[in-house]
Amino acid sequence: MARYCDANCKLCRREGEKLFLKGTRCMSDKCALERRQYAPGQHGQSFRRKVSAYGLQLREKQKVRRTYGILEKQFRNYFKKADAKSGITGENLVQALECRLDNIVYRLGFAGSRKQARQIVRHRHIRVDGRIVDIPSYSVRPSQTVGITDRSRKLDLIHSALKAGRGDELGWLRVNKAALEGELLEIPKRADIPLTANEQLIVELYSK
Fold this sequence. Notes:
Layout (H helix, E strand, L loop, with lengths): L7 H8 L16 H4 L17 H15 L4 H13 L4 H10 L2 H8 L5 H9 L3 E3 L2 E2 L12 E4 L7 H8 L9 E4 L4 E4 L14 H8 L2
Antiparallel strand pairs: 1-2, 1-3, 3-5, 4-5
Helix pairs in contact: 3-9, 4-5, 5-9, 6-7
């Protein structure tokens, strides 16, 4: 299974904003973007060039793809499915990404980052409606319950994430920290998703 293995902080610096890929580190003074607010690489500080319309579209696509930790082929497949559905393609795309199991685990506060949430899912610490699911891309449906398995309830990383208050207070999610479980109440509307991205630029990029 292909996955990104290079330094995560380089991605934030390349996009010029925090993607929150390192959990609590992103909120501290150790954040690489706070110390070096320029693109990575030998010419990161000196290289300046006018960004074209295509460049803006590409950067927006890369930002969203890297935020959710998805490689290019899988991201393109998400776009094709979003485009085939009725409604606004960009909104369909963001909604599909938000309903990924690893993202739901992150939003509920059981992990400090999406990468950590992906690891928790892959290591079979998560169950959906009482059944263990180890597929990070599993699409959670409304009214489904996502919780920690009985054998994993004492994991330090889960309690550390909860203690840090990582969970997002979102109207489309219900979380019970005492029971270590949460529920997707509904498919979120675009306005309710805390993602600073212009998905219309992604639609324009893939529509060429």
